[in-house]
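## Example record

The block below lists the input lines for one assembly entry, exactly as stored, with component labels intact.
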Amino acid sequence: MLRTGPKRKAIYAISGHIYVIAGLMSSGTIWLMDVEKDDKWIAQRPVVWTLIDSFQEVAIWVLLAIAAVVVAMAVIKHMADPWVVEKLQFILDEYQGKVFKDLNVPKDHNRVTLFKYRKGLFFRRHWHEESKDGWWPFKTRRLYGNYLVPYMRSGHLTLRTKTLFFIDNENSARTQGLAGLAWSTRQVALLSDLPEIKPGTGAAKKESYAKVTKSSVRFVERYLAEGRTLPRSMAAVPVECNGKLWGVIVLDSLTSLAVTQESVEHYTLTVALIGHLLERA
Amino acid sequence: MRTSLEEWISVSQHDLNEVESREQRGLKVQFMVAPSDLPSAWRVIHEKADSVEVEFKYLGGNEPKQLEHCSNNITLEVGKNSKRIYKITLDVRSVPNSGELMISRAADVVEHGSGLNKGNSEVIHRFLTSKRSKPEILERMAP
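Predicted structure tokens for the full assembly:
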């Protein structure tokens, strides 16, 4: 789950100047490598020559280190801009605060999560129960697939979620979760007034819940076994970036009628703004 | 060139975004058009003497567009990635100079156009044919 802090901000800020710093440092190193003992300006400075001579022995490694730092900073620069991450986090937190009015419940009872579409991921844990025999020896890990993976979540709880949704672009029937349904239909999918599912709830009810949420009974049972409560209302909203589908925002709540049509309709601008910010994420 | 009528008019997204419900095992799944596929505003442009354009604005970001020449001498400007309709150009030389007929032909093209964004084309079709917006479009299309 993407977050930003002072360290990340500082590294990102430095990465903006690294090309200038690296350019100056490498020029200086190359110049020092070319200095010779009988050069006019150094002939009268034996101490300086001793230092330069020692430096010349390791100069090639210094150049390699500068190159490595430049590559690392280029990778960091390619990652999400901390400013954008901060704003996205603010928007998700505000979205959560506005949609879910009940402030006296823990933040993980009503969540807003941004999922990103990622192509070609290997060995991701998979909770759908179909065709798992073919995945031996990985059992619940599919060798290769496309997924909606958690990118950012409102609030400060359940940030270590590993829930991801398998996307099959060739057969939408195999796509998982309400998020997957929103992705494949490119529409907002909304479920409210879902039944309360407890560990002792009958198999038929669990099956209905799994069917309508495009999950599986195995997932429902595992979720309950971990002591977690299943959402009773949720919505999945496709998010676009430059006209292309980027991911899905999922609103979910433990309250049966907390997510409604208005939770989406009144916040179209919020969703659009997220899409605009994602251009720089 | 006339510009006085070319200001953007906001669209009532609530009116256009019809909720479709499907029931599965006694539980209801509702579907709505994605916010990015709903036009936020529209306008009519009389830029050229031989054509009238109905343009739509969306909340989503910019994307490259392409022209699709359809039947009835109607041209659609469509988003390359999203396949949303950004502009409908009606050739007034070949289309009879009746606003009503032009709109109904445009609605027909939008309804049956291939390769368009389904949710968006449904919304645009609804917009062109709805009792509320149609008279306003006709009024602005009048020469």
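The two ends of chain B are 11 Å apart (CA to CA). Helices of chain B lie at 13-16, 99-112, 118-129, 134-141.
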